Every structure is written in structure tokens, then in C-alpha cells.
UniProtKB/TrEMBL annotation:
It comes from the Bacteria. InterPro entries: AAA+_ATPase (IPR003593), ABC_transporter-like_ATP-bd (IPR003439), ABC_transporter-like_CS (IPR017871), ABC_transpr_LolD-like (IPR015854), P-loop_NTPase (IPR027417). One of its GO terms (cellular component) is plasma membrane. Gene3D superfamilies: P-loop containing nucleotide triphosphate hydrolases. Keywords: ATP-binding, Nucleotide-binding. SUPFAM superfamilies: P-loop containing nucleoside triphosphate hydrolases. Part of the ABC transporter FtsEX involved in cellular division. Important for assembly or stability of the septal ring. Residues 6-226 form the ABC transporter domain. The lineage of its organism: Bacteria, Pseudomonadati, Bacteroidota, Flavobacteriia, Flavobacteriales. It comes from Aureicoccus marinus. This is Cell division ATP-binding protein FtsE. Belongs to the ABC transporter superfamily. One of its GO terms (molecular function) is ATP hydrolysis activity. Pfam families: ABC_tran.
Amino acid sequence: MAETVLQMKDVDIFQNDNLILSNINLEVKKGEFVYVIGKTGSGKSSFLRTLYGDLPLSKGQASVVDYSLKKLQEKDIPYLRRKLGIIFQDFQLLPDRSVEQNLEFVLKATGWTEPAKMQLKIEEVLDKVGMKSKGFKFPHQLSGGEQQRVGIARALLNDPELILADEPTGNLDPQTSVEVMKVLQEINQTGRTIVMATHDYALILKYPHKTIKCDGNKMFEVIQKAV
């Protein structure tokens, strides 16, 4: 049986005092690809932020890569995030550093110290996303799709057990979105678990996977044809 990477039981998600999502019961197994869909403001980002420790969990039980979110303390958050890969809609690359320097910054921040090992890892992840020849370039010299490929490479640096992607194609044109999705599909096919928030229904139809919908403060699984 596949191991459970993410589990939530009777979870309520709040932002300050506002209830965003209530009574979430969800299980994600190792190797699954799960979409989280819903209108803007329906709670997709708040859900992901809870998973990587940006919003505290006050009600219910949840575990992410063997960390209890209920018991999560401030000092535990960096360790939790080392086991996660996080991909953002707006890339979040440091503009004054090259692609390789962006990745090196993350490795150093997560405890890597040996330059040779860091260089090998950087080359490995850039190769996986088809960006090995662009490591010397700066973010402003890259297209949106290339920047997002670097964002995906960054998420792979610490061999994460779970990748959280928050609208990773939200700032990309349809063709580039498909190219980025192909990269994510390939990563998923190597056995990595991906939870991806999106409102791009064309991608969901093109690459069908388990789909969870946020609507009316609830989260529920939807059958593909009903999306």
C-alpha cells in the first residue's frame, strides 16, 4: 500500500478570525497528483499555506510528510519546508542573482555546505526542467515559462516528498502552461507527489487527475466530467 503523505481530519482553516474552509477530510498518497480548484478567494491558497506552515492550524488534525500541523512550532517550520517543494505563481526568483545563484542560495539556506555537491545538484535539477544551458542567465533575461521552470527546479533541490504548486501556470500563456505542465507530469511520473492549485480547466481536461474543489467554505472531490 502507498504511504500517506498528507492527511487531514475535521480541519478548519482560518485567516485571522475568518473561517476560510471547514471540516476538511482529505488523504493524499505517495505518488498522487491532486488538483485543488475553485474560484479566486475560495481558499485554495489558504489551504496550501496551511500545509507549509504559513497559516497555523487551530482546529482538527493534519499531518504533512510526518509532521503534525497541530503541534508545529516556529522552529519546526524550516525542517517541514525542507521536505516540501513549493512552486509559486509569481516565480519569486531573486532578480539580482543568476539562475544558478538563485538555486545555490536555497541550498545554502537549507544547510548545504560543499560547493561541489551543490553544483552537481544544481545541474541535476536544471537538467530535469530543460534549463541546464541557462544557469548563467538572470531572471529578467528569461521568459515567464523559463522562470517557472527554474521555480520548479528550485522546488526539487531537496528531493521533496511533496510538491505544492500554487497556480504555477497562472501567469503564463496557454502554450507555455502546457509546457510547464509537461514538466510537472514528468516529475510526478518519477513517483513524486504533487498538489496543485489551479483555475485552468483546460489543463485539468488535458491532464486528468484526482480533483478537489473549494466552494462555499467546503472541500470535496469532484468527478472529472463534472468539473
